[in-house]
Write a structure and sequence with these properties.
Blueprint lengths: L1 H17 L42 H36 L4 H6 L1 H4 L2 H11 L5 H13 L13 H36 L4 H4 L1
Length: 200
Amino acid sequence: MSQPSARSSEATELVEAGLAGVDDPVGPKLGSPRDATGPTPPGLEPGGGSVADQPVPASRGGGRHSGLIRYIIRRLIIAVILVFGLTLVTFCLTNLVPGDPVAAALGQRAADNPATVAQFKAEYGLDKPLPEQYLTYLVKLLHGDLGQSAQTHRAITQDLAQAVPATAEIALGAIVASAIIGICFGAWSAYKRGKITDQV
């Protein structure tokens, strides 16, 4: 019975000897940043103020908006270049097509008359150099002037105004019909999933 008591007294002496050199046996307080080990949390530095006083980092929304604006600007520049290239290719192909535009517009008899040919070329600017003709073509195109039809001898805008409604009606009907058929077949394929109708 004396052995456990002796061991208990020895353990107690060892604990007291180990804690003799410690000022605060409880250890550092958890709520005190001065006594805590490791880096001090932001906003709790001495004299640093509270967390609410710290500057808030800038949001990334502005960067996304600026990226979107740059993307739109690039697309607009590419669209302008494509339209310019399209007009240039169209103008070059029109001038490279074999045949006489005067004879095609006025007929062979009128094309045999030099005075009529000169008047026609002066009226439509065909007597000018090709670069000047192209610039004139661009200026008129920007103003909505598509020229005069060689068949109806009317403004092309008038012919388009008469033809566009019928074309739009046909296109709209085709779009609606294709949408209805596509939705029906898609729903049927989803209903018969894994069968032959889903593979067609």
